[in-house]
Design goal:
Strand order of the largest sheet: 1-7-2-5-8
Structural class: alpha+beta
Radius of gyration: 21 Å
Shape: elongated
Length: 256
């Protein structure tokens, strides 16, 4: 019901004030308790935060979104010694509009992340008409997500979704355990039980599978291909390629 009201307000009279992407080094983080005169949306691409708000407290992790109502006091308790990455969107609403609480939404399938990425790009390029359309699409997805009634996805599915979208980056087992908010040992054991693979083995299989798909469409060198799938050591990439395909890189290229 709250998201229905919010969507109606956004469709009625709203405009984007700012949209930026920040990491742990950004000066845009406000580290004290504060509020805003506008609606603020904070989406964690990677990282986590303990959110202290007016009469509430919540924990956010990777692919979580929090929506702060106008004049809602809050503070993000974040470990800035670790990698943090987030989108922040400010939306101006009518002065008389108000919500009593912050909203949190999980985005396991990355639909919201995709919209934030496109919106951010269009905003930076000054294409405000497109950005405004994307803003409406964003709030429509927020409404759908909040009313779906779906329970949190299994641990292995959350990790697989994350790997599918971040396989080109450096990924560590400890990072995956933080994603699902369990110990590294527990995450390793459950993931192996549910998939038959260790997390890193699954990641390597995924990378080689992506490499095979790229090879069918591009004529990249071994070094270029490895870098495209997150393996920057050519010798290690060649070793993994043979391990998971049964043939060498050069033999597979000839087959194509």
């Amino acid at each position: 019901m709250i998201c229905d009201t919010l969507l109606e307000e956004v469709e009625r009279d709203s405009r984007i004030l700012d949209c930026f992407r920040i990491d742990q080094t950004s000066s845009k983080w406000i580290k004290s308790y504060h509020d805003h005169a506008y609606l603020e949306l904070l989406y964690f691409i990677r990282g986590k935060a303990d959110i202290e708000g007016d009469h509430s407290r919540s924990f956010l992790g990777t692919n979580d979104l929090i929506i702060y109502p106008p004049r809602f006091g809050h503070k993000e308790h974040i470990d800035f010694s670790k990698h943090q990455e987030a989108f922040c969107l400010g939306v101006a609403l009518r002065e008389e509009f108000s919500l009593s609480e912050a909203l949190t939404i999980n985005d396991p399938d990355h639909e919201l992340e995709w919209i934030f990425t496109q919106l951010h790009r269009q905003f930076l390029e000054g294409r405000m008409e497109i950005a405004e359309h994307l803003k409406l699409l964003l709030f429509q997805y927020i409404r759908i997500s909040s009313q779906s009634g779906s329970t949190e996805q299994p641990l292995s599915i959350r990790i697989i979704n994350y790997l599918e979208h971040h396989y080109q980056e450096k990924i560590y087992q400890e990072e995956l355990s933080e994603l699902v908010q369990v110990s590294s040992a527990y995450m390793y054991r459950v993931f192996r039980q549910e998939t038959g693979h260790t997390p890193m083995d699954y990641l390597n299989r995924l990378r080689i599978s992506k490499a095979q798909a790229f090879m069918s469409r591009n004529n990249w060198t071994l070094e270029e291909l490895g870098s495209r799938v997150g393996i920057h050591d050519p010798k290690y990439f060649s070793k993994l390629f043979r391990k998971y395909t049964g043939v060498s890189y050069s033999a597979y290229r000839k087959q194509l």
